[in-house]
Write a structure and sequence with these properties.
The chain is of the alpha/beta class. It has two domains: 2-46 and 307-448, Lyase, Ornithine Decarboxylase, Chain A, domain 1 (Beta Barrel), CATH 2.40.37; 64-301, TIM Barrel, CATH 3.20.20. The chain contains twelve helices and 18 strands. Strands 1, 11, 12, 13, 14, 15, 16, 17 and 18 form a nine-stranded mixed β-sheet that branches. Strands 2-3-4-5-6-8-9-10 form an eight-stranded parallel β-barrel, surrounded by six helices. A hairpin with an 8-residue loop joins strand 14 (365-371) and strand 15. Helix 2 packs parallel to helix 9 (276-286) and helix 5 (125-134) crosses helix 6. Bound molecules: pyridoxal-5'-phosphate (PLP). The site of pyridoxal-5'-phosphate has 18 residues, from strand 10 and helix 10.
C-alpha cells in the first residue's frame, strides 16, 4: 500500500465519514449490537451510500447529455443484501446479476426488469429462458451461448437488450485473480484472437436483435488508463458494427454500451480515490463519442459503491504472545475477510482499535497480529501491525469493508453469518440503526448443514 501523505480537510468528507464511524461503533457497543453472544457485527453507513451514489450520478451526468441518461447498475455480488439493493434502486441504481440467486435478490428488492443486467459465463438454458421472459438485459459470454439464444429466440424479437461481452485483451492489472482483460481471461469473446473480430461482426450482421455491447475491464488493481482503453476498444467495435448496419439496413444497430464496473477502491485511507468524477472525465477525454447521446451508457460498479460505507466490528476475545509476537485473537477472520486472509498482499485492510466501550483506542502503537477465530494458522487480518495494544474486551474494526466482506461470508468452521446493520447519524450526533440482515442463528446453521 502506498503511504498516504495527504492531510484530509478538517471538515471534508473523509473526516465526516470517520466521525460517523466512531459514533456508530460506540453506539453499537453501548446498545449491545456486539456482545458476548454476537461478538462480530457489520455496520453500513447509509449516508455514505447516498453520497457515493450521488457522486456517481453527478459524474456521468456531467460527462453525458441530459436526454440520454446512463443506466447505473450495482454488481450484486459486491453487496448481496436485499435492503441494500432496495436502497440503491430507490436512488436510481439497478442491479447487475450473475446467477439465479442474485437475480432473485434483485427481484425481491423490487428492481424493475429494465434496470437488471444479467452477466455470467455459465448461464444455463433455464437461466437464459427466464431472462428472456423477464425482458432483462442479457450479455452473452461466448459463441455456444449465442447458439442457444438463437434457438430460444427463434422467430421472436427479445424485449430486453441483448449483446455480446467482449474481452479487449489489454493485459492484467496488479491482481491477477481480478483481471478480466488478460489474453486468456475466461470472460467474453477474446477480441484479438485470430478471426474473432470478424466473427463478432458477422454475429451482429446476422442478428439485428443484438443491440448492446459489453465489456468489464476489472477490477481492483486496474489502472484507470487501462480501463479507459478497454472502453475505447468496445466503443470502436460498436462504431464498426453500426457502420456496417447502416450500410446494410440503413440504421444503426447498437444502442447501448455497457462499460462494466471495476473502479478501484483506496483501502489505505478514508479518502475516496480515484473518484467517479475522475473516471468519467478520463472516459470523456479518451472516448468522447461515448457521451454524445448516440449510446445509452450502462455501468456496473460494485466495490466502489459500498466499500467506504462499511465497517466490521469484532470483539477481542484474548490476547497472547508467541515467539515474541503479540497476538490479538478476535472474532473477525476468514469467514468475513476471506480475500484479506488468503491473499493479504493483494487485499490489505486497515484495522482500527476501539476500547471496550467502543471509543477509539488511544494507547501508544505496538506491533501485533490481529487474528480471526478460524482454526488454521493463517487466519490473520493484519500481521505485525502497529496499533494501540488491543486487550480482551476491546474491539478491532476492519475498515472499508462495505463491499464483498460481510455480505459474502465463507462457511468455514460453521461460523454463523454476522448481522449487518445500516446506520444514520442524526443532527444531535445520535446513530440510529436498522437491521439489514439479522445474524444467522445456530439452529439455522444446523438446519442448513443437513441437521
Ligand atoms: C464483479 C463484476 C462487476 C463489479 O466489479 P467491481 O470491481 O466490484 O466494481 C461488474 N461487472 C461484472 C461483469 C462483474 O463480474
Amino acid at each position: 500500500m502506498a503511504p498516504n501523505s495527504e492531510t484530509p480537510a478538517p471538515d471534508g468528507p473523509a473526516v465526516r465519514l470517520r466521525a460517523r464511524r466512531d459514533l456508530a461503533v460506540a453506539a453499537a457497543v453501548r446498545q449491545g449490537l456486539v456482545d458476548d453472544e454476537q461478538p462480530l457485527v457489520a455496520l453500513l453507513d447509509l449516508r455514505t451510500v447516498h453520497d457515493t451514489v450521488h457522486a456517481l450520478h453527478t459524474a456521468f451526468g456531467e460527462a453525458g447529455t441530459a436526454d440520454r441518461p446512463p443506466l447505473h447498475t450495482f454488481a450484486v455480488k459486491a453487496g448481496s443484501l436485499v435492503p441494500v439493493l432496495r436502497l440503491l434502486n430507490g436512488l436510481g441504481v439497478g442491479c447487475e446479476v450473475a446467477s439465479p440467486g442474485e437475480l432473485a435478490l434483485a427481484r425481491a428488492a423490487g428492481v424493475p426488469a429494465d434496470r437488471i443486467v444479467l452477466d455470467s459465463p455459465a448461464k444455463t438454458t433455464a437461466e437464459l429462458r427466464e431472462a428472456l421472459e423477464l425482458g432483462i438485459t442479457l450479455n452473452v459470454d461466448n459463441s455456444q451461448e449465442l447458439t442457444r439464444l438463437d434457438r430460444l429466440t427463434a422467430g421472436t424479437t427479445p424485449r430486453g437488450a441483448l449483446g455480446l461481452r467482449i474481452n479487449p485483451q489489454l493485459g492484467a492489472g496488479s491482481i491477477d485473480a481480478m483481471s478480466t482483460a488478460t489474453a486468456t481471461s475466461k470472460f467474453g469473446v477474446a477480441l484479438q484472437d485470430p478471426g474473432a473480430r470478424a466473427w463478432v461482426l458477422r454475429a451482429y450482421a446476422d442478428r439485428p436483435w443484438l443491440t448492446a455491447l459489453h465489456c468489464h475491464v476489472g477490477s481492483q488493481g486496474m489502472p484507470l488508463e487501462q480501463m479507459a482503453a478497454g472502453v475505447a476498444a468496445t466503443y470502436e467495435l460498436a462504431e464498426e458494427i453500426n457502420e456496417a448496419a447502416l450500410a446494410a439496413r440503413g440504421r444503426r444497430q447498437i444502442a447501448s454500451l455497457d462499460i462494466g464496473g471495476g473502479l478501484p477502491v483506496n483501502f489505505d485511507s478514508d479518502e475516496v480515490s480515484p473518484t467517479y468524477g475522475e473516471y468519467a472525465r478520463l472516459l470523456k477525454d479518451r472516448v468522447p463519442g461515448l457521451f454524445d447521446g448516440r449510446y445509452r451508457v450502462v455501468t456496473e460498479f460494485g466495490r466502489s459503491l459500498l466499500a467506504k460505507a462499511g465497517v466490521i466490528v469484532a470483539r477481542v476475545e484474548y490476547t497472547k504472545s508467541a515467539g515474541g509476537r503479540r497476538i490479538a485473537v478476535t472474532h473477525a477472520g476468514a469467514q468475513v475477510a476471506t480475500r484479506t486472509v488468503f491473499a493479504p498482499e493483494s487485499w490489505p485492510l486497515r484495522v482500527a482499535a476501539y476500547d471496550a466501550d467502543g471509543r477509539p483506542g488511544t494507547g501508544a502503537p505496538v506491533r501485533q497480529d490481529v487474528a480471526g477465530p478460524c482454526c488454521f494458522a493463517g487466519d490473520l487480518v493484519a500481521r505485525d501491525r502497529e496499533l494501540p495494544a488491543l486487550e480482551p474486551g476491546d474491539h478491532a474494526a476492519l475498515l472499508d469493508t462495505g463491499a464483498y466482506y460481510a455480505s459474502t461470508p465463507f462457511g468455514y468452521n460453521s461460523l454463523p453469518r454476522p448481522a449487518v446493520h445500516g446506520f444514520t447519524v442524526g443532527p444531535e450526533g445520535v446513530p440510529e440503526f436498522t437491521v439489514i440482515r439479522r445474524a444467522q442463528t445456530v439452529a439455522e446453521l444446523v438446519a442448513e448443514s443437513g441437521g
